[in-house]
Amino acid sequence: MSDRHDTQIIDIAIADKSPIVQSGLRAMFESDERFHVVAVAADGERFMEAVNRLSFDIGIIGWEMPYLSGSAVLRTLRGREDAPRVVIYTGSQELDIPRQAMALGAAGFCHKSDPPERLVETVLAVAQGRMAFPYVDVRLLELNPLAGLTDREREILAALAQGMTNQQLADALKISLNTVKFHLKNLYGKLGVDNRAQAVAKYLGRAMR
């Protein structure tokens, strides 16, 4: 953290797909003398450019972002000694995101429906070296069969629901047929199904809730 006038200032960078959220977060943190906003990005790729170019303490990033999602950013930051601590800030209603974010190395989580003060408190806690996550009822997570899937597995499952063949999947994702089969095997195992018809049925059943 920067040392200015004997006060520890928390340097932060913000990434969100919404310009309104970007400007709102920038205004909120810049009006608080405890923080200094060093960068604002519209997607995960630009956030990673800021990581490579600048030095800051905390990244406040969305989960669903173009080019590089929040989960992909966390995976990219893994193992980097100079990586900022990351707070996921999302409006997604997916119950499993806090657990996924924690497993991928995030230091905190805050929902966009929470009061703004909650985000400030979360960032302050993370800056002090603490983890800041909401309570999640694990019994609810067990109701979601899609919770443990990776981004790529979710992408493949959605494509299956559209009726795409293995070859069409390979062409669309620019991966080999063997890689498609590898992903499908993992996908079926996680969903507890034996074939694509059962996987699609489980996917559609979840989507219609």
Topology summary:
Blueprint: E1 2-4, E2 7-15, H1 19-30, E3 35-41, H2 44-53, E4 58-61, H3 70-77, E5 85-90, H4 97-103, E6 108-111, H5 116-127, H6 138-141, H7 151-161, H8 166-173, H9 177-191, H10 196-207
Parallel strand pairs: 2-3, 2-4, 4-5, 5-6
Antiparallel strand pairs: 1-2
Helix pairs in contact: 2-3, 7-9, 7-10, 8-9
Structural notes for this entry:
- This protein has helices spanning 19-30, 44-53, 70-77, 97-103, 116-127, 138-141, 151-161, 166-173, 177-191, 196-207, and strands at 2-4, 7-15, 35-41, 58-61, 85-90, 108-111.
- By secondary structure, the chain is an alpha/beta fold.
- The chain has two domains: 2-138, 3-Layer(aba) Sandwich (Rossmann fold); 151-204, Winged helix-like DNA-binding domain superfamily/Winged helix DNA-binding domain (Arc Repressor Mutant, subunit A, Orthogonal Bundle), CATH 1.10.10.10.
- Strands 1, 2, 3, 4, 5 and 6 form a six-stranded mixed β-sheet that branches.
- Helix 4 links the parallel strand 5 and strand 6 (108-111).
- The radius of gyration is 19 Å and the shape is elongated.
- Residues 2-6 have low confidence and may be disordered.
Summed up, what is this model?
This protein is α/β, with parallel strands linked by helices and about 210 residues long. The protein is built from ten helices and six strands.
Keyphrases for this structure?
209 residues; disordered N terminus; 47% helix; 6 strands; Arc Repressor Mutant, subunit A; elongated; Rossmann fold; alpha/beta
